Amino acid sequence: MTPTITPGDGPLLLAQPHGGTEIPDEIAARLNSLGLERADTDWHITRLYADLAPDATVISTPVHRYVIDANRDPADASLYPGQNTTGLCPTTTFDGAPIYRDGEEPSADEIAERREMYHRPYHEAIEQQLERIRQRHGFAILYDCHSIRSHIPFLFAGRLPDFNIGSNSGTSCAPALECAVADTCGAADDYSAVTNGRFKGGWTTRRYGDPVSGIHAIQMELAQSTYMQETAPWTYAENKAEALRVILAAVLRNLVAAAG
Q1: Residue 171: CB atoms within 10 Å
Q2: Which CATH number describes the domain made up of 4-259?
């Protein structure tokens, strides 16, 4: 289950760590019915962003986040201390419910093995592609693509805004890039947006964002209600998705323009 890499000629890299649904048989056999449901997937994320920036590089992993979360610190340090969250190899859903059969959770040795098999190759691909892009253009932009249910009381109160922009409190990209994304989302009729709210950017954004050295990173966490059915069978809502794609295309276009 190596990462999927589609190289592009432009300065933009789209990272998609949570769209995969594959779970190795030996792990799936230990999951309970909730774990096998895979409810916490970033459903349809590759389809949603397809062809919005034709010259972008795209990196995704086929592995489901219940196997390992490619957007978590490999040391499993919390990204949001003091708040409910899930770990490097999650043992619960986003609602706090167990995903493994009793006593079948991964050991420390197994977590280390999964980190080497799935987490490290994904991030090696990102590092290599970012450097290739920076060598070509003098800078690179990492846009981390995410989506999540709009209502998860275990993780956050109330309803999540439609666009959740994360720049690690303004440190992972130049201010002009953050403004370009925030202004585009803020101008979109009938959508809500917040910058550095509940989601400030995961480990990917924090790890690679270094605007001084020419690498800008920003995360977009979309409320899934903007483009799909948020309950099983998690159907892609064509009309809603197409309206959203128009805005996302403008976000990516304006992001690159701000960097250039």
Answers
A1: 15
A2: 3.40.630.40
Question: Rounded to 5, what percent of the chain is helix, strand, coil?
Answer: 35, 20, 50
SS3 letters across 60-127 = ECCECCCCCCCCCCCCCCCCCCCCCCCCCCCCECCCCCECECCCCCCCHHHHHHHHHHHHHHHHHHHH
Q: Are 79 and 72 in contact (CB under 8 A)?
A: yes
pLDDT tens per residue across span 182-211 = 999 999 999 999 999 989 999 999 999 999
Q: Which residues contact 186 (CB under 8 A, 6 or more apart)?
A: 193
Instruction: List, in order, residues 6 or more apart from 146 with CB less than 8 Å away.
Output: 17, 18, 42, 45, 71, 199, 202, 219, 220, 221, 222
Residues 6+ apart with CB under 8 A from 177: 141, 167, 216, 218, 255, 258, 259
pLDDT in tens, 27-50: 999 999 999 999 999 999 999 999
Neighbours of 55 (CB within 10 A): 11
Domain segments of the chain as ranges:
4-259
Closest CA relative to residue 24, chosen from 62, 59, 60: 62
Q: What is the pTM of this model?
A: 0.96
β-pairing, 12-16 vs 193-195, is: unpaired
Q: Which residues contact 18 (CB under 8 A, 6 or more apart)?
A: 40, 41, 42, 45, 65, 69, 70, 71, 146
Structure tokens at 233: 């069978």
